[in-house]
Write a structure and sequence with these properties.
By secondary structure, the chain is mainly beta. The chain has 6 domains: 32 residues, no CATH class; 83 residues, Immunoglobulin-like (Sandwich); 93 residues, Immunoglobulin-like, CATH 2.60.40.10; 104 residues, Immunoglobulins (Immunoglobulin-like), CATH 2.60.40; 104 residues, Sandwich (Jelly Rolls); 283 residues, no CATH class. It is built from 7 helices and 48 strands. Strands 29, 30, 31, 32, 33, 34, 35 and 36 form an 8-stranded mixed β-sheet that branches. A 6-stranded mixed β-sheet has the order 37-40-42-41-47-48. Helix 1 crosses helix 3 and helix 4 packs antiparallel against helix 6. The longest helix is centred in the middle third of the chain and has 17 residues. The N and C termini lie far apart (89 Å). The relative contact order is 0.06. The N terminus is likely disordered.
């Protein structure tokens, strides 16, 4: 018997032939046949595609397999489109690219030998943008059709007119109606509708197709022109005033009508529907506007509604009346006035109750304002703040949170103005005595602990100590001791060579190194030294109910100064070393280095905005700047160096304005005064200040114009701010709570 065995050869062998091998068996001659691979199936990936704009492309891949299911990677493949008017195809071998030509559906075919595979291709344009063709910016009679229709063109992502897409036209409030709200674009991608105006002075129609949008606007006029008063906005200085505080209300008022208002018209302020007072405003021309500023209050404690209404009695004939009023809710806090040397008894039986007090100081003093809560049972915490009352007691300046109800705050100096006191019932407490006094109580001094890691000469070391003593005199009160024993800081984490910190710091520790940095002096080095803080106290509050955590930035704990020994010798010989060291110590205290952490730096020039109007935003610092002659300065106050150069920009006063002041990036002139502006900036990052230590300083006319030129010898202190991360440490636990990176890190 004859048998034929079929054996498929490797499909990758070109030119395979059928081999017959003589076989013996079953009593007769036999042969085995090896079959050549034949393309049997073709599979296209992906199996379908949706193209959303003309000229959009999509790649496809074909896999050819033989009769045994094995891939034939070298098999010849041809590609074809069932409708070249919908899409075209290009490619050879196993890959091809389809290009959209018009909306429609077709089939992509890949053929190899007698085998083929298909994939479906659909082209459906979608609008990527809506282009206004005509009809925008018209003016017409209110409640009448406009003379021109609204016409738009829908375009796909390739900027080709999108035919057959749905476009919606939606009038805005008081903006009338359209003849067709939904329109399908024609072959040119165009859609149109007629617009009948409504009653508003300025009206709009929004156009949309998918995510693509546009807007038509029109102005309505009347046959007999009339005004239309609109209360554009109303803002309150705060929505949580105390019961003895006033609020400032600022309202923007516009005449959006087409005729002038009467010579005068009223605006009425109401509280809970009861009129408080009425203000007369002068005539507004069409499109004219004015600002009304009102001081109102105090109000009784509780929740109230403030409303301002224009033309409350309807005496002015207007287009519409429903845009004449605005209202806001306020929540008035219980609050009590205190006087100096006039103790009051306070208590609370309710946990988490906050009792608010306010005292007004009429005479300034270099001595401390003392606020003391004493006696009684339970646990109360006390918070004291100068100036505008913060919106939460956690953000007050002085935070006294002992484990009882004996609390004490001192603020230096005593300033004219309002001081706010909040007493928080951590538990029920009282009866306790709350008293405010000025002077007469000891103030903890501020101590600067200099640790010399690499000393200079004895005279240089003495200059360092004298500069530290100068700052000890400037800062009016010690900070809370910080204990590292529970969480020691490792060696080297506060400047080169810094040792392990595992003890108590009172009040700041500064590591000093005087060695070679870059050769300095006349040899051409450009880094005199570097300085900066390494760690900052944080006070952490956590609400037990919500778990929300607030962290309050406080004073610096540790920092370092490193000076180039060559430059130090040269600066000592020129008599400027005291100013340089005092300058660098200020950076360690936080001048220019912790401004962002306290949200005081505005519009920084680093990393990519050189010549930005960089400035320090602090009300007391601005007042000191104005007092030094800067009231007429036209830029942001207080101007900060804005060169965009790391290490000097965003961390010094602006040289062209401040000239010889100590905290500019160039030390110039015969003396470098430490101004009240610098001292107040330290107050606004958490230090109590002896303002009597400020030196005389005035801004020049050239400085106010930003055109002052350096005078005399110049010491460049660029790159003196060490750009290192600063650890924010919990005052109670000593643990790292957050890491504060330099601006533009």
């Amino acid at each position: 018997m004859n048998k034929v065995a079929k054996i498929s050869r490797n499909s990758g062998l070109a030119g395979s032939v059928l081999l017959l091998v003589a076989m013996a068996g079953c009593g007769g001659d036999g042969e085995t046949q090896v079959e050549e691979p034949v393309p049997t199936t073709v599979q296209i990936t992906p199996g379908s595609a949706m193209l959303e704009f003309i000229d959009a492309t999509q790649g496809f891949t074909a896999v050819v397999r033989d009769q045994d299911g094995k891939a034939m990677p070298n098999a010849a493949v041809s590609w074809s489109s069932s409708d070249a008017s919908v899409f075209t195809v290009s490619g050879s071998g196993s890959t091809a690219t389809v290009t959209a030509a018009a909306n429609g559906t077709g089939t992509l075919t890949a053929t190899s030998g007698q085998a083929s595979g298909t994939a479906s291709v659909e082209v459906e344009q979608r609008a990527a943008r809506i282009v206004i063709v005509s009809g925008d910016g018209q003016e017409g009679l209110r409640e009448e059709p406009l003379s021109e229709p609204l016409v738009v063109r829908a375009e796909d992502q390739g900027s080709t007119a999108a035919a057959g897409v749905e476009v919606t036209f939606t009038p805005g409030s008081e903006s009338g109606s359209v003849s067709e709200g939904s329109v399908t674009t024609d072959a040119d991608g165009m859609a149109t509708t007629e617009w009948t105006l409504g009653t508003a002075r300025t009206q709009s129609v929004s156009v949309a197709s998918g995510s693509a949008t546009a807007e038509f606007t029109a102005r309505a006029v009347s046959e007999n022109p009339i005004p239309d008063l609109e209360l554009t906005s109303m803002t309150l200085s705060r929505d949580d005033p105390g019961a003895i505080e006033t609020i400032d209300i600022v309202a923007e008022i516009t005449n959006i009508g087409d005729a002038a208002t009467p010579a005068t018209f009223p605006a009425r302020l109401s509280l809970d529907g009861t009129a408080l007072d009425t203000h007369e405003l002068t005539q507004l021309e069409p499109d004219g506007s004015t600002t009304l500023e009102i001081t109102a209050g105090p109000f009784d404690a509780g929740t109230h509604t403030i409303q301002l209404t224009l033309d409350p009695d309807g005496d002015v004939d207007e287009w519409q009346e429903d845009n004449n009023a605005s209202s806001q809710s306020i929540r008035v806090q219980n609050q009590q006035a205190l006087g100096l040397d006039s103790p009051v008894t306070v208590s609370s039986s309710t946990v988490n109750e906050v009792l608010l007090f306010r005292v007004y100081i009429t005479e300034p003093s270099d001595e401390a304002l003392n606020v003391e809560l004493s006696g009684g049972s339970g646990d109360a915490d006390m918070f004291v703040h100068y100036g505008e009352r913060p919106n939460h007691h956690y953000r007050y300046r002085c935070l006294s949170g002992n484990a009882a109800s004996d609390e004490f705050c001192q603020l230096v100096p005593t300033r004219v103005g309002f001081y706010h006191i909040a007493v928080h019932a951590y538990t029920a407490f009282g009866p306790s005595t709350l008293e405010v006094t000025v002077g007469g109580k000891d103030i903890e001094t501020y101590d600067v602990d200099l640790v010399f890691l690499d000393e200079g000469t004895s005279s240089q070391n003495n200059i360092m100590r004298q500069a530290a003593e100068r700052w000890e005199a400037v800062i009016g009160q010690g900070a809370d001791d910080f204990d590292y024993s529970g969480n020691p800081a490792p060696a080297g984490n506060c400047g080169p060579g810094s040792p392990i910190a595992n003890d108590v710091v009172d009040d700041i520790r500064i590591y000093v190194t005087i060695d070679s940095i870059d050769g300095g002096g006349d040899s051409g080095g450009n880094i005199l030294g570097q300085a900066g803080p390494c760690s900052l106290r944080l006070v952490v509050f956590e609400d037990p109910a919500s778990g929300q955590r607030d962290t309050i930035n406080r004073q610096v704990i540790r920092g370092f100064i490193r000076l180039d020994e060559h430059d130090v010798s040269l600066m000592e010989s020129r008599g400027v070393l005291p100013s340089v060291v005092t300058h660098e110590l200020a950076h360690v205290l936080g001048f220019g280095t912790v401004w962002p952490a306290h949200d005081r730096l505005r519009n920084p020039s680093i990393p990519d905005k050189p010549n930005a109007d960089t400035h320090f935003d602090g009300p007391l610092t601005i007042a000191a700047f104005d007092g030094a002659g800067g009231a007429g300065y036209g830029g942001g106050k207080v101007p900060v160096e804005n060169s965009g150069v790391r290490g000097s920009a965003d961390g010094h006063w602006r040289q062209s304005v401040f000239q010889d002041e100590m905290m500019t990036p160039f030390l110039t002139g015969g003396t470098q005064p430490m101004s009240a502006i610098t001292l107040e900036s330290l107050y606004e990052i958490g230090y109590e200040i002896n303002l009597s230590e400020a030196e005389s300083f005035g801004l020049s006319r050239a400085g106010l114009a930003g055109m002052a030129m350096p005078r005399g010898p110049v010491i460049y202190l660029g790159n003196d701010i060490a750009r290192i991360p600063m650890m924010g440490l919990d005052q109670k636990t000593g643990r790292v709570v957050k890491v504060i990176y330099p601006e533009g890190w």
